[in-house]
């Protein structure tokens, strides 16, 4: 029995060793699994953190861009109010100029109408003068024809009388002037 007891003793101390080893191995395996789970969770958390940092960076960038846009918008609004004031001033100035041009245009239209009326009156007067001139030219032509006819008749009569009597014409006398220009 002693050997059994010895073997039992041997087995007993080994059993706790084996049990302890198995417990340790199980505990080690559990720790490995826990470690692996922790690594997995750490990887997931790092991914979330990276996304959060990226999102945070993007949010910061978007905030920066929004601030820049806001500042630009405020500058544009200030400039726009100045531009509106300048445009209003120019509009008022142009309105005054336009009113002056309208008044000037009215005066010029009235003046133009008066000038057109005067031109029409002068055309009428010119036509009347032209008619008178034509009538005078016709009268002048008739007068010349009558003068030529009268001169011819006087010459003929004078020739007939001269044939009957001999008239001596002295150069530079009234008779010579009458013979050379019978209408005068």
From TrEMBL:
It comes from the Eukaryota. Residues 1-18 have a biased composition (Polar residues). InterPro entries: DLG5_N. Residues 1-22 are annotated as: Disordered. Residues 10-88 form the Disks large homolog 5 N-terminal domain. This is Disks large homolog 5 N-terminal domain-containing protein. It comes from Mus musculus (Mouse).
